[in-house]
Amino acid sequence: MRVLTSREFRKKWIRRVAERGKVDYSKVFPKVERILRDVRNRGDSALVDYTRRFDEVSISRKDLKVSSDQVAESYRKIEGGYIKALKVASENIRCFHQTQLEKTTTIEPVKDVTIDQIVRPIPSVGVYAPGGGGAYPSSVLMCAIPAKVAGVRRVVVCSPPNRSGDLNPAVVVAADIAGVDEIYRVGGVQAIAAMAYGTETIARVDKIVGPGNIYVTAAKIIVSRELPIDFPAGPSEILIVADEKANPAYVASDLIAQAEHDPLGWAILLTPSRKLASATSVEVEKQLKTLPRSRVARSCLSRGGLIVVVKNMEEAVEYANMIAPEHLEIHAENMSRIVGSIENAGAVFMGEYTPVVLGDYSAGTNHVLPTGGYARAYSALSTGSFLKKIQVLRCSRRGCLSLRDTTVNLAELEGFDGHARSILLRR
Asked: Given 326, 331, 352, 367, which residue is catalytic?
């Protein structure tokens, strides 16, 4: 990993890191748009064709949907310990997201004027579960459980089949544990098209969530003109703010853990301690030598792995807010004070016994987080991501007349005489 001074980081790197989310989709948009249009026009036939072309597996229209017998078969293919882990994680995720439920509220801003805010779930949601290079049952839990907690009636999962035409059994089991209603063997851009526009077999949904590669992300961006998505998902990233008392072995292991996700990810340590910076650099190399699958992590750390020796913790916080990381770990004294100064982060992990991997899998917080600096404006996926709020206004005659002059004046100010008349007629 590169070890930089604060000056070197500010001069040569900060802009590149802060603008890492600016992805050029221009080369993939034309191809993605053609596939989206084709699925919209030809439905299931296009899904079958693209599955044969991109996933190299032949399936028929009747094979698109995973049956209950195939769900049961998936359970038999998974070791009991893994099933137990999925169930424990699901309960923790469900417990946390239930605290996010919102209730109908009522206020009376003016006498005889009542405003209710009614909370309703989105009717249907589509979850994309990646395949190919890796399958992530934990992401299925993170996407589907909050939707079900919110009361979404229909949750759909789409995931690409393997060469045998089957889905990863862990993904199927996770979907079942999460309470998913329909599971389909279709991936890539064609899956996003199916969920956005609908086909003969897959009915359209009202929102699409879940991570994917650049083609899937581009497809989500395009269909977002017609239905909402969560947010564009990029490579995993971690920023660690640590002082001289931090354990370099822990810091190194947490940097590596996120680096092994994607060679295009980012793993950054900010510390005022030169000793910790040096020890962490040595520890990273030491741990990589014993990591069975070190290739991706090495690639990520050689490109986006940085150790920055900052002037003090205040400067570290300044950089953290500029970067707006997906994951922010704090290994330092006065952690609460530091967190109080954090404005931009997808999720914060406090202390040496709170590594990001707990949030990735088991603690109950959601790991679908804004990347690429989107944490400046976006939040983690939550129960609220699947809820909508309807405003209900009730006025008595007295309440209506009490707002008459204010309403008429504002209507006349904007030049809408019809608006003013609507109130004046009610004298």
From this structure: 326
Instruction: Report which DSSP code applies to 311.
Output: S
424, two tokens = 């004046």
Helix 80-98 × helix 137-150 angle, to 10°? 40
Write the CB contacts of 188 (distance below 8 Å, at least 6 apart in sequence).
35, 50, 54, 55, 160, 215, 216
Q: Please check whether residue 193 is in contact with residue 224, taking contact to mean a CB–CB distance below 8 angstroms.
A: no
Q: Which residues contact 235 (CB under 8 A, 6 or more apart)?
A: 261, 262, 264, 265, 266, 300, 371
Among candidate residues 37, 42, 99, the one with its CA nearest the CA of residue 364: 99
Q: Which of 97, 261, 327, 367 is catalytic?
A: 327
Q: What is the pTM of this model?
A: 0.92
The domain ranges of the chain are 2-23+234-364, 29-223, 396-424
* Tally of residues, the chain: 427
pLDDT in tens, 63-79: 999 999 999 999 999 99
Task: Please list, in sequence order, all residues whose beta carbon lies within 8 angstroms of the beta carbon of residue 159, skipping any fewer than 6 positions away.
Answer: 128, 129, 130, 131, 135, 167, 168, 171, 183, 184, 185, 186, 187, 191
pLDDT-based confidence at residue 193 (cuts at 50, 70, 90)? very high
Banded pLDDT at 133 (limits 50, 70, 90): low
| Angstrom distance (rounded) from CA 74 to CA 165 | 13
Ranges of beta strands (E only) in 251-364 are 266-271, 305-309, 327-331, 347-350
**Catalytic residue at 315?**
no
Same topology for domains 2-23+234-364 and 29-223, yes or no?
Answer: yes
pLDDT the model gives residue 378: 94
Please say if 102 is a catalytic residue.
no
Say if domain 29-223 classifies as CATH 3.40.50.1980.
Answer: yes
Cα(156)–Cα(150) distance, rounded to whole angstroms? Answer: 15
pLDDT tens-digit series, residues 247-295? 999 999 999 999 999 999 999 999 999 999 999 999 999 999 999 889 9
Q: What CATH number matches the domain at 2-23+234-364, 3.40.50.720, 3.30.565.10, 3.30.200.20, 3.40.50.1980?
A: 3.40.50.1980
